[in-house]
Amino acid sequence: MSTNVRAYQGIHPDLADSVYVDESAVLVGDIKLDHDASIWPLVAARGDVNKICIGKRSNVQDGSILHVTRKSLANPDGHPLIIGDDVTIGHKAMLHGCKIGHRVLIGMGAILLDGAVVEDDVIVGAGSLVPPNKVLQSGFLYVGSPCKQARPLTEAERAFLPQSADNYVRLKNEYLVDLQQSS
Length: 183
Known about the structure:
Layout: E1 5-6, E2 14-15, E3 20-21, E4 26-33, E5 38-39, E6 44-54, E7 59-60, E8 65-67, E9 81-83, E10 88-89, E11 94-96, E12 99-100, E13 104-106, E14 111-112, E15 117-118, E16 122-124, E17 129-130, E18 135-136, E19 140-144, E20 147-152, H1 155-182
Parallel strand pairs: 1-4, 2-4, 3-5, 4-6, 5-7, 6-8, 6-9, 7-10, 8-11, 9-12, 10-13, 11-14, 12-15, 13-16, 14-17, 15-18, 16-19
Antiparallel strand pairs: 19-20
C-alpha cells in the first residue's frame, strides 16, 4: 500500500478495485471506498477515531477534508462519516462526522458538522454551513451560514445529481487508464 493510503492502529483503508485515489490525497485508517468512488488531489481523510464510508460512484473533490468524532460516554457511537451513493463533494468542502444520503451535491467550500444528516436528493450550496445535528430534508436546495431551506429542487437539478456522479466516474476511469499506460 502506498504511503498516502495507510493504516492507523492496524486498520487499513478498504478500497474497491475500481476506485481512484490521487497520489496527493491522504487516506488513513478505517475508511471504506465502494465501487467507482474517486478521491481527488489534496483530499485529507482520517478514519482514526471512527469510520468513514464512501458509497458507489461518489467523488470527493480537490482539497476537501473528511473527519469523524470519537466514541465517548456521552456519545457511545461518536459520529462516523457516512457518504451515500452518487454523491458529489465539491472542492474544499469539510465534512465532519455527518451522514450524507444518496444523489447529493455538496457545494464548494461547504462545511457540514457533527451529527448533521443530509437526506437523499439534496443540494447544499457553495459556502454553506450545516450546523451540528441539523437535518436537511430530501428534495431541497439549502444555502447560507447557517444554511436554510431555499426552495424545492427543479426536475433538471434532480436529474443532474446522478449525472454529476457519472461525470466523475468517467473522469476517474480516464485517470486510471492514464496511470496504467504510464506504468
